[in-house]
Amino acid sequence: xxxxxxxxxxxxxxxxxxxxxxxxxxxxxxxxxxxxxxxxxxxxxxxxxxxxxxxxxxxxxxxxxxxxxxxxxxxxxxxxxxxxxxxxxxxxxxxxxxxxxxxxxxxxxxxxxxxxxxxxxxxxxxxxxxxxxxxxx
Length: 137
Ligand code: ADP
Ligand code: MG
Known about the structure:
Layout: E1 2-6, H1 8-19, E2 27-31, H2 38-48, E3 65-68, E4 74-78, H3 84-88, H4 92-96, E5 100-104, E6 116-125, E7 128-134
Parallel strand pairs: 2-5, 2-6, 4-5
Antiparallel strand pairs: 1-7, 3-4, 6-7
Helix pairs in contact: 1-2
This protein binds adenosine-5'-diphosphate and magnesium ion.
């Protein structure tokens, strides 16, 4: 499925709506360049999963993995700065089974997950993005 969004608020709303369909153990892999809207998407996802409003969702660039409380635990990972060996050491598969995991820069993953949803972001214009969504089979 391909969807276009016009502005960050639409990307957040799309993610928020998608959250209702996501079950524990699902890993959402986000692909796309810097500024494509991956973190913006995670903000909407967090809202949809019931993460309290006051919890600020930003890229876990230094912490590697952010854990947010919600109806499901949400694990937010950004692999931008990591080498494949370092990714192996994070223990992502174990964590992924305990809640919902969302991974920015999934291009860097050296392995796959049992239940993957794949989202590829394309920048169409300064305010427009195309999201290609593949739901888990
Ligand atoms: P990434 O995590 O992929 O690097 P961010 O979500 O951090 O991207 O940043 C996306 C930037 O693009 C934000 O500044 C946001 O306001 C802007 N933007 C403009 N249009 C959109 C859109 N349709 N969807 C998401 N972000 C958008
Ligand atoms: Mg980001």
